[in-house]
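lol forgot to send this yesterday, sorry. struct tokens for the thing we talked abt
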């Protein structure tokens, strides 16, 4: 299964510098999808530029910005010192002045150093300026658990950022998401946080000709039904989408057809797609790698409770989340701290009353 394959990529993936752009089967690596989105938008709009640690001469810590410095030069692909607070402030100021910066963090965990700039400066300025100062900026980088990087490098910030008004939050899963959502984020007039997943950078997903087109853009705030079903709805985002799909395959072998929804966006949240699915299946399970308290699953539960969809439920909503602990370093404990397909299968059996 894909989930087991990517878990074994481990640290070696960080140094993975050469991936084919496209195979004969039209598969695209997630890192190359992001690279294509950056390239196309920089070519389209000269106001777009990238800054961050090792994004230029080294081609990016994850090779996402490979080739862009050579193509666009040091004024548009800028290596910064190791000071997130500093270069994030520079990026926000550039957005105030009418440029369209893309601020890359080597991991979103390091963005905690610049949270004041992201929230108080970027997210609130349009409101506090009475609509006179737009802040068209993208904050992007790997989010959530990687492999063997322990507690201070494995947090999921989906719930953190989606809590804050004034900006949008997108969470790509596959190559289609990665390209279409990032292009939309770069074009958006407001701050957008793009939470990628390191374990997916080196995974190739099949893509259509439409995705490869330079004009391909996905709408922010619209979820995607990855797999139709009639017995239970499973809602997930980022890497947890694969966990949900693996669980759905196992459930299908037992005659249970799960509908899997890829949120794609956490703010705005596409509750309409969730509501319609739950009204059809009458059951809901949410899956995320983040912590349970105040998580995305909790928000979805609240939205269901406040909507007419609540009366369509035949059982309580079940949340499958990461363990409520800092991430362990040991490989076996790390796997135990993250939701696995068997956890989702167990949750579905519970809500359906299957023994």
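and heres what i got for the seq, position by position
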């Amino acid at each position: 299964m894909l989930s087991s394959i990517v878990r074994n990529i481990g640290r070696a993936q960080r140094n993975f510098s050469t991936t084919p752009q496209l195979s004969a089967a039209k598969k695209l690596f997630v890192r190359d999808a992001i690279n294509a989105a950056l390239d196309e938008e920089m070519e389209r709009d000269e106001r777009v530029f990238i800054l961050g640690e090792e994004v230029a001469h080294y081609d990016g810590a994850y090779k996402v910005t490979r080739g862009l410095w050579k193509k666009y030069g040091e004024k548009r692909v800028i290596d910064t010192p190791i000071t997130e607070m500093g270069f994030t402030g520079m990026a926000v100021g550039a957005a105030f002045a009418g440029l369209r910066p893309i601020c890359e963090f080597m991991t979103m965990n390091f963005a905690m150093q610049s949270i004041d700039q992201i929230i108080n400066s970027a997210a609130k300025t349009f409101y506090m300026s009475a609509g006179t100062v737009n802040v068209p900026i993208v904050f992007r980088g790997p989010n959530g658990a990687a492999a063997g990087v322990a507690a201070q490098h494995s947090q999921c910030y989906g719930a953190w950022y989606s809590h804050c008004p004034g900006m949008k939050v997108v969470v790509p899963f596959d190559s289609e998401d990665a390209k279409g959502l990032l292009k939309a984020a770069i074009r958006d007039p407001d701050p957008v946080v793009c939470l990628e997943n390191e374990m997916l950078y080196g995974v190739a997903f099949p893509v259509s000709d439409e995705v490869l087109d330079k004009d391909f853009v996905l709408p922010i705030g619209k979820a995607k039904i990855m797999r139709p079903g009639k017995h239970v709805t499973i809602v997930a985002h980022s890497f947890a989408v694969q966990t949900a799909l693996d669980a759905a395959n196992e459930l299908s072998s037992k005659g249970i057809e799960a509908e899997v929804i890829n949120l794609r966006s956490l703010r705005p949240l596409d509750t309409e797609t969730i509501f319609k699915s739950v009204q059809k299946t009458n059951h809901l399970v949410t899956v995320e790698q983040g912590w349970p308290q105040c998580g995305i699953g909790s928000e979805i539960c609240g939205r269901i409770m406040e909507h007419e969809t609540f009366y369509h439920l035949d059982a309580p909503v079940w949340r499958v989340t990461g363990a409520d602990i800092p991430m362990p370093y040991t490989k076996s404990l790390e796997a135990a701290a993250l939701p696995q397909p068997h956890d989702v299968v167990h949750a579905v059996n519970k809500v359906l009353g299957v023994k």
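The first strand starts at residue 27 and ends at 29. anyway ping me if u want another try
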